[in-house]
């Protein structure tokens, strides 16, 4: 057995090669089976110096049980970097609640990636995940992908209330497209941007949520508070949005003195006439790249 320090494990079988207290990172990018999860649980509890974990259960259709087993038995006390891919794994609100509780214990986390797309976490699960995120006061980088999850207004409220507590966030990638946010859910999502003053990079996908004109306007109005933004990507396609242009939605390009990349997708709506906005954008900012889909 090796006595190396700062070891990175890339598959389950490598656990037996090293002293557990020499393992600082676990990056298992291939999907793991139920049997491997048991081995993983038995070993990870002995890794006292662990700071980075990357784990995939993508497409594991027995993952309802596997995720429950995993989350009930794992401790990530000293982990600062965590990436979990549980997309297309039949996760429901019960497993999502366990995940939210576990996230709430990540006192030292600064980098968190959650891929949860194509599941059924619903309002209850999203709300609990939001509560967990609200306890991650040191979080600076967050990827939250939960498209196609039957999340509605209450779920949007919980996510917003949680994420707005992460006031050190500089990078946020949030994909909640093809859910049931509606205008009220978009209003809740917009509220979190009042507190996220440190954001420099935002990728927000609210496509196919029926947020309508006033929901879109609410989000764009509050994003105007994030004045340190350098890259901004917003997708609001297919949302029953009408209007004569981005100005009518409340987007103030002059607020972004540091912005160099702007991409806004308003396709499959009734919003037209972007020419005036494009001309103004080039004059009022340091934009290097501007992409508008209308």
TrEMBL record:
It comes from the Eukaryota. The keyword Repeat applies. The keyword Kinase applies. PANTHER family: RAN GTPASE-ACTIVATING PROTEIN 1. One of its GO terms (cellular component) is nucleus. One of its GO terms (molecular function) is kinase activity. Keywords: GTPase activation, Kinase, Leucine-rich repeat, Repeat, Transferase. GO terms for biological process: nucleocytoplasmic transport. InterPro entries: LRR_dom_sf, RanGap. This is Kinase domain protein, putative.
